[in-house]
From TrEMBL:
Pfam families: Pyr_redox_2, Pyr_redox_dim. This is Dihydrolipoyl dehydrogenase. Its cofactor is FAD. It comes from the Bacteria.
């Protein structure tokens, strides 16, 4: 057994782990990275980058069909599934290659291959070959796709999103389980590439939306294109030759059995903290078995253990993982002199069409505790100038402001170029701008951002009225 003594051990070499390693090294500490799987981040291998490649192909196909609305008529469209997936895999491998280049630059003595387990708060064992006495640990073990019990062990036709990007051709049909970001992005992309797609949701959620009005519009707009089935429960699934026989039950209790080449499960991800000996650390765990931690320092209790990225399940997004890792690694290096790190305004985007984005405080968060200290402004994109010019006039933007201070608090939206609108609004939110200050900023014409100005003007008018009586406050009840 090889024995090491180090200052900091980072378990995992994804976005959070690599960021933590660099931050701890910057503190001058002897730091090692431990990895049990292939190098390369979730984003590059099976997440944000390959999914955007598939979406880009679907957008190209969709624009050919949509061109007729402008009076531009293309010839017969032919989608070559093998070529589509070949580009996805080829470019995916390039992105992974960039990550691997960075890993290659890390000294070999700092990299340990194998599965790490805690034997105590300051002792790790990697497989059966290395024992590590460590002063501080950063858990950056990432997450894995969740597979419901009723879909386990069915056969090769039941897959998770990670497996999509190894396809060599497009399938004939796919049932997508889940209307979260990943399910909607992949479901719509495959639909636009000619795959028969049905998307099932246990409830009525759409991506990360919590605002009931935005949720209603999103369900209507996306449902006008996609076979979206809310309030559906998976009853059973059985592999039958090259297809899966999927039985579902709707909200009225009616059951329906259909055949699909694949059942793509997109029902969330599970943090990888259940097989690392976390029970030997003495850490307090939450109901899901995740160590309780401080989101400003990433420190688990008062221990010398820190947790970052998808492993802590706080905001499982790449920018957050990078920030988590930097904070965790920095504090692991300087422990016990722990400091709060920079936490940015929350920002999440779904690259559907129209795009979905949320930023700052969500509607659900603002409604917590039944308080009604915020006003709402809104703008529809149906008649917004630039949106109509582009034939992308679908969606709704809702913005939130604080009574009294006039501070801009956040927004939820589905609409054209929401990825750009949400960044502008997120910057204003992080800068703690008031709604009045935001309206003093320049707006060109004609641009999508004029819709944002409309919503802010509406919000300013509501703030000017002052806090209403409780009965006239924003409706905080859930529902589509």
């Amino acid at each position: 057994m090889n024995k090491l003594t180090v200052d900091v051990a980072v378990i995992g070499t994804g976005t959070a782990g690599l960021s933590a390693y660099r931050a701890a090294r910057a503190q001058g500490k002897r730091t090692v990275l431990i990895e049990s799987g292939p190098y390369g981040t979730t984003c590059a291998r099976v997440g944000c980058m390959p999914s955007k490649l598939l979406i880009a192909a679907s957008e190209a196909a969709h624009m050919v069909h949509a061109a007729a609305g402008f009076g531009v008529h293309a010839g017969q469209v032919r989608i070559d599934g093998q070529e589509v997936m070949a580009r996805v895999r080829r470019e995916r491998d390039r992105f992974v290659g960039f990550v691997l280049e960075g890993v290659d630059n890390i000294p070999d003595q700092d990299k340990i291959i194998g599965h790490a387990r805690f034997l105590g708060p300051h002792l790790l064992q990697v497989d059966d070959h290395t024992s590590i006495d460590v002063s501080r640990v950063v858990i950056a073990t990432g997450s894995r796709p969740y597979l419901p019990e009723e879909l386990r062990g069915v056969g090769p036709g039941v897959i998770v999103s990670d497996q999509v990007f190894d396809w060599t051709d497009l399938p004939e049909s796919v049932a997508v389980i889940g209307t979260g970001v990943i399910g909607l992005e992949l479901g719509q992309a495959l639909h636009r590439l000619g795959v028969r797609v049905s998307i099932f949701a246990r409830g009525g959620s759409v991506a990360q939306i919590s605002d009931p009005e935005v949720l209603h519009v999103a369900a209507r707009v996306l449902g006008s294109e996609l076979d979206l089935r809310f309030q559906h429960k998976v009853v059973s699934a059985r592999q039958d030759g090259a297809e899966v026989l999927l039985t579902t039950r709707d909200g009225a209790g009616a059951e329906r059995s259909e055949r699909f080449q694949y059942v793509l499960v997109s029902a969330g991800r599970t943090p990888n903290v259940d097989n690392i000996g976390i029970e030997t650390t003495g850490l307090e765990l939450d109901a899901k078995g995740i160590p309780v931690f401080d989101p400003l320092t990433m420190q688990c209790g008062t221990s010398a253990i820190f947790i970052a990225g998808d492993a802590n399940n706080e905001r499982p997004l790449l920018p957050e993982a990078a920030d988590h890792g930097k904070i965790a690694g920095d504090n692991a290096g300087r422990y016990p002199n722990v400091h709060p790190g920079l936490r940015r305004t929350p920002l999440a985007i779904a690259f559907t069409e129209p795009q979905v984005a949320t930023l700052g405080a969500s509607y659900r968060e603002l409604c917590t505790g039944g308080s009604h200290k915020f006003a709402v402004g809104k703008a529809s994109f149906e008649n917004q100038g630039r949106s109509r010019v582009m034939l992308q006039n679908h969606g709704l933007l809702r913005v939130y402001g604080e009574y009294g201070s006039g501070l801009f608090l956040g927004a939820e939206m589905i609409g054209p170029r929401a990825e750009n609108l949400s960044h502008t609004l997120a910057w204003a939110c992080q800068a703690r701008m008031t709604v009045a200050q935001m309206l003093e900023m320049p707006f060109y014409h004609p641009v999508i951002e004029e819709g944002m100005r409309t919503a802010l003007r509406d919000l300013a008018a509501e703030l000017e009225k002052g806090a209403p009586a409780q009965s006239k406050a924003p409706d905080c009840t859930p529902g589509v």
